[in-house]
């Protein structure tokens, strides 16, 4: 007997397609789980929270919860590895704007989740992890598959819970769910000892309820708003810096309205990609270590930085001493601890990004005079173009592949990535116009994020949205076992491996800073990813020449199922511009000799 | 194109090299504050007493200490104990940081779910710590005299060792420890500072006084009775 899972290419595969309308309807009409024990209370609590999908891996201590899922409307996707479950849940949440759910058993199951939990914490992604635990009476005895999961995950969660009682465990799960998305989002975890999930109870846990003090006020202090509005009115060279918080707060509309009304050039952070349309004339794309030259010029020369939902990560700021050194900083953030943590905020506005941007929009009486400054930014766009050459007799340039995919797909296509050079090219050469279409691992920089993220994104996306994963050869090799899930679930995703047979970003740094000593970054050999894909039951292509690119992309996109294109790219291609670690953004290098 | 001749720039983008671009003259200090480079002063590190009212749930102390270690906050002491309200505890921390650092300590503490309220104590706050000193017992009369000078108590006296207790603020304890060195200190245990705001001021913002009748019994005083051990 098997629930959900179908053999690859099975006729019934379409019936279990997660995106099909019948599935969605059955979800809303499904009868809620009847609470008989702790495990059913956990599942009922998830149902009460509106959860429709969960990603995980079975195992001894979590078995009661899985058994409760048997009768639930919640669609569980069995992943190949718990790390894949955590990334899939994270990406699902990013695309859908709700907390993603992942499950794992105790011990290694829980520790395998940790990378994905830490990733979610760094990127402020709402996520709830549920882990099995040995029975309470055995905790502390070094029992089989026992790990101090709450201890291990405390530094990488907003908060975690050790469930102690079957009668309250459902409420605890609801609280953890609500806390994950309250205020600044982040991951939470509930550790579930087996005696608690087996323990009898018939209490409906009710709707999720966030704990006290976790939901801050959305409005900023009105006096502070007026002060900030005055400094913006006086500004001659203002820049809006939109971070990932703009997307999390669903504030893209307010961000667009603000920048356009006051004619303020826009720079985004990497997590902020998609918060403002990159095809808008005011948009200078993203700033930081590999951001555009024009974004880094603008952010260096601004006299008024209107930063929204960003934590001023070091990859954005470069050296603190030279970051926006002449700017009065207006900083909008929901988390007071981000105010003046890295960059001093002259005008802190604590609140929800959408709400505060509206407050600020209304409070500005005199429009700043920005025509000359906008003109200057446009000039910088011309002076530092993101152009590249495509000599036919050389290996394919990765930038060309990213642009070819962008041209072949719709605006609402979702892009996921691993971490490394391919991630930077995917961020630089794709024109993002909508929020929640760029799904990547930013703060933690987790290689291997891309494929499981594409799986999670596929379940969250609309049917007509394409999901593309740009991956590096090194990144892909870290989690490619999840291809088995994509095949089993017949997921329409396309993986574009930008294969240079290097850990390319490390190789780039070794060339620049370690005299070209390619210690442990040089493979000179990779498995044949196209054939590996076929072995999994996915469709595979290999591309070596420019004239093969368009056809392979077209065929892969047309194929209704998981597909992998192994692009053998120019192995010496490097990512520019580049701001050396701790260097000045305005001194970005355009080639290696400038580093 | 010139890039064809230059193998390094071939791997790069076009545009003015860094030295040909304009660069602003302003700068920030390490705390991210815009500064006048002419008048830049080293940020001053100061000692602050921070009090946190917390839910006394399992693991709360490890969450607080974990926060301090992973964010590399400089901590001098940490004390914890229950309050008069059932289920609450007060954690008193002495930290040594710059002003922005102390600000971060308070904000990061406040983000922890079990932390209800965080406050920094004024300089005039009431502070105390306790030290237990075990010294050689060769000169009991002199040990007794010095213990009395510091309003201390003898907790244990034997033929070879005497253990005394001194309470007071940090400098008084420091002085007392110095004074006992002449006898040869065998062991020492200090509690770290605990503190309350002076007068009507609540120690952490918004902290309510315990309602009438709920005040728990006075914590029992450490016994002043000298116990004689056989060591």
From TrEMBL, chain B:
Region feature (Disordered): 1-42, 194-231
Bias-annotated ranges (Polar residues): 220-231
Enzyme class: transferase
Keywords: Amino-acid biosynthesis, Branched-chain amino acid biosynthesis, Transferase
GO cellular component labels: cytosol
UniProt cross-references to Gene3D superfamilies, sorted A to Z: 3.30.70.260, ACT-like. Chain A, domain 2
UniProt keyword annotation of Amino-acid biosynthesis present: yes
Protein name: Acetolactate synthase small subunit
Species of origin: Natronocalculus amylovorans
Gene: ilvN
